[in-house]
């Protein structure tokens, strides 16, 4: 039972629902249909399980020839449908004979994405648990890409022990998504709202504004145009110079992510970790709207049920033995557990890891993902099987059983990786940024010189010596997808602090190495980015089909050794096996080291803060904080 692609349309991909779950902690997004409501309704009409693989089409649909008879259903955005040249309806099962041609036109009406579902579904292998296409990662669906002309698709044959349901009639009009150009979108406040990060006036403006959908939107996220926040903080401290910056934290799909002054609604191909604040999150039953927002549409947010609680679910005071804990809402399907103050503290990250282990061991029904951040743990759960209240009670109970922070010890590995310093590919990315995004940015034309200046170092060579002399402790994976580590030096005297690009780059070379805030990251794949470049390394994600393709683990220690750009090209051309040794990391030992070196650590920090303040003053004088970008 095959289907021939005569014309693929625009960015037509194979998707299934709910997509690729359980890998958020290593930077693998769920993918799946961006408008899951239309997708699921079409499958139900065909008698399929609602997650059965089908096609998602953007702006224009495909032309397909069916070599065998089958039944299809077209849903989603308004689109003309033809069967053998004759008009056919959307939203109802269509019985097609062998040899029939199904064609979808341009999506010139309301909405952005249409769906083509087939009785029995499309037959594609599951990659990391799903057939959904993740084009940025290059896996799932048809070879990890959009369809091309002459592709051959197969319709699945139902298994004898899993028969399909009966084919239904048209999807009732009342059940279909209401599409338009003026959107009313409900949100739940949190995780990071007012008054800690945004002013009360910012939040009022957020609800009062008719935000415009930017043309530069995709499955990763929908960019919005609107007023710039006033912000409740002057900057992000150790996390970066812009007040939107925070220590890297897990994200929810549907979060309103302020990357600098620009809000982005994170989509199903969005990042799992990042260093920006999110004042509100779309609940699960509103996220289908992300898939139908067109450039130029207007979006107004309103709090679901009038709930205005800043997203704070509970707070617990700390003691000498354990830090304070804040429980924050992140949609209706995530609880974000934060420890301590907004600072980089290995004790907080180790406590996050200990709590994650306890929750995983408890294995409550309904938990989907456990994703650690620098000082936070996001618990992603199915709200139809597990309530927020039960999650809160579980966290309180398990946290009370954790040992005192000074008793925490974790297994660690020392992983030696090559680094091409100031690699030509990163210079090219900076040139593209200056040409296409922003020529006057303070970090241009050379990121390494900016790192020197903002840290008060005497020379660029001093930056190089620190990077190659440091042991970087991995605190999270998936910061920019696919096992990409977010790491920071164990020795505080090696912690270079920078701010991130604002606005972000549109292109970053795969495996570029950069610093943002106090953190180093290896980019797992090409894509946008904001960290200040220092070089490039080998892949940290194995594309050969391993069950666990990520190279690094939490609490690994990365040690760099220098290679030339030409040597790196050779290393990247073949499988790379790093030198690895095992060790452990004990918080009490680290704190004792910091106490012994307190004087020189303080001196380094004082110089750094002075340079950081000077850079901030220069930005203020130049109007950097007043410019809407």
How are the secondary structure elements laid out?
Layout (H helix, E strand, L loop, with lengths): L1 E6 L5 E3 L20 H10 L8 E5 L4 E4 L3 E7 L4 E3 L2 E3 L5 E3 L4 E4 L8 E6 L33 E3 L27 E8 L10 H9 L2 E3 L7 E5 L19 E6 L5 E4 L2 E5 L6 E4 L3 E2 L16 E6 L8 E5 L8 E5 L4 E6 L6 H17 L4 E6 L3 E6 L6 H13 L8 E13 L2 H13 L10 H8 L5 H10 L2 E6 L7 E5 L15 E4 L3 E5 L2 E4 L4 E3 L2 E5 L20 E7 L1 H8 L6 E8 H10 L1 H24 L8
Structure description:
This protein is of the alpha+beta class and 629 residues long. It has ten helices and 35 strands. It has a seven-stranded mixed beta sheet with strand order 16-17-14-13-20-12-19. Strands 26-33-30-31-28-27-34 form a seven-stranded mixed β-barrel, surrounded by four helices.
Q: Reading side by side through the largest sheet, how are the strands ordered?
A: 16-17-14-13-20-12-19
**Helical content (DSSP H or I, runs of 4+):** 10-25%
Q: What is the strand tally?
A: 35
Mean pLDDT: 94
Report the sheet with the most strands, covering strand number, pairing sense and barrel closure: 7 strands, mixed
Instruction: Supply Rg.
Output: 25 Å
In whole angstroms, the N-to-C terminal distance is: 51 Å
Q: How many alpha or pi helices? A: 10
Oligomer: single chain
The computed structural class is alpha+beta
Low-confidence stretches: none
Proportion of residues in extended strands: 25-35%
Q: Choose one word for the global shape.
A: globular
């Amino acid at each position: 039972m095959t289907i021939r692609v005569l014309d693929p349309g625009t960015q037509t991909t194979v998707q299934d629902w709910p997509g690729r779950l359980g890998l958020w902690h290593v930077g693998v997004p769920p993918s799946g249909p961006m408008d899951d409501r239309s997708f699921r309704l079409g499958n139900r009409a065909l008698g399929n399980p609602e997650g059965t693989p089908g096609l998602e089409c953007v702006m224009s649909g495909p032309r397909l020839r069916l070599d065998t008879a089958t039944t299809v259903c077209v849903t989603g955005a308004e689109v003309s449908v033809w069967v053998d040249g004759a008009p056919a309806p959307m939203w109802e099962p269509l019985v097609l004979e062998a040899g029939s041609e199904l064609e979808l036109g341009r999506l010139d009406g309301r909405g952005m994405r249409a769906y083509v579902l087939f009785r029995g579904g499309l037959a594609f292998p599951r990659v990391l648990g799903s057939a959904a296409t993740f084009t940025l990662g290059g896996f799932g669906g048809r070879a990890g890409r959009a369809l091309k002309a002459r592709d051959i698709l197969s319709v699945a044959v139902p298994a004898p022990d899993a028969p399909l349901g009966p084919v239904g009639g048209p999807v009732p009009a009342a059940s279909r998504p209401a599409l338009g150009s003026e959107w009313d979108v409900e949100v739940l406040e949190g995780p990071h709202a007012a008054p800690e990060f945004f002013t009360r006036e910012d939040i009022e403006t957020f609800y009062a504004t008719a935000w415009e959908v930017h043309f530069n939107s995709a499955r990763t996220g929908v960019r919005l145009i609107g007023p710039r926040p006033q912000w409740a903080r002057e900057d992000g401290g150790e996390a970066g110079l812009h007040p939107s910056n925070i220590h890297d934290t897990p994200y929810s799909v549907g979060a309103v992510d302020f990357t600098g002054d620009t809000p982005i609604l994170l989509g199903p191909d969005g990042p799992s970790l990042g260093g920006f604040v999110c004042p509100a999150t779309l609940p699960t039953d509103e996220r289908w709207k992300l898939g139908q927002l067109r450039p130029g549409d207007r979006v107004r947010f309103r709090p679901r049920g009038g709930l205005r609680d800043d997203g704070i679910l509970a707070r617990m005071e700390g003691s000498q033995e354990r830090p304070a804990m804040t429980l924050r809402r992140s949609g209706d399907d995530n609880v974000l557990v934060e420890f301590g103050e907004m600072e980089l503290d290995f004790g907080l990250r180790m406590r996050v890891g200990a709590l994650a282990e306890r929750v995983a061991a408890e294995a409550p029904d309904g938990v989907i993902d456990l994703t650690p951040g620098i000082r936070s743990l996001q618990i992603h759960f199915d709200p139809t099987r597990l309530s927020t209240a039960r999650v809160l009670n579980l966290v309180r109970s398990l946290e009370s059983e954790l040992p005192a922070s000074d008793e925490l010890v974790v297994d660690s590995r020392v992983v030696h990786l090559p680094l091409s310093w100031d690699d030509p590919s990163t210079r090219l990315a900076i040139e593209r940024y200056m040409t296409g995004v922003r020529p006057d940015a303070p970090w241009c034309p050379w990121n390494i010189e900016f790192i020197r200046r903002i840290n008060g170092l005497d020379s660029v060579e001093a930056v190089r010596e620190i990077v190659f002399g440091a042991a970087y402790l991995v605190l999270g994976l998936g910061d920019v997808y696919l096992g990409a580590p977010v790491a920071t030096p164990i020795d505080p005297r090696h912690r270079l602090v920078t701010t991130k690009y604002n606005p972000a780059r549109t292109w970053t070379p795969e495996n570029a190495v950069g610093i943002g805030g106090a953190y180093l990251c290896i980019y797992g794949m090409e894509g946008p980015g904001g960290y200040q470049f220092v070089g490039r390394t080998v892949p940290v994600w194995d594309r050969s089909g391993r069950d666990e393709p990520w190279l690094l683990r939490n609490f690994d220690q990365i040690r760099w050794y220098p290679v030339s750009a030409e040597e790196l090209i050779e290393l990247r051309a073949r499988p790379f096996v790093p030198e690895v040794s095992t060790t452990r990391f004990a918080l009490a030992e680290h704190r004792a080291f910091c106490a012994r070196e307190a004087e020189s650590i303080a001196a380094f920090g004082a110089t750094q803060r002075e340079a950081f303040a000077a850079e901030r003053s220069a930005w203020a004088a130049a109007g950097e904080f007043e410019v809407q970008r």
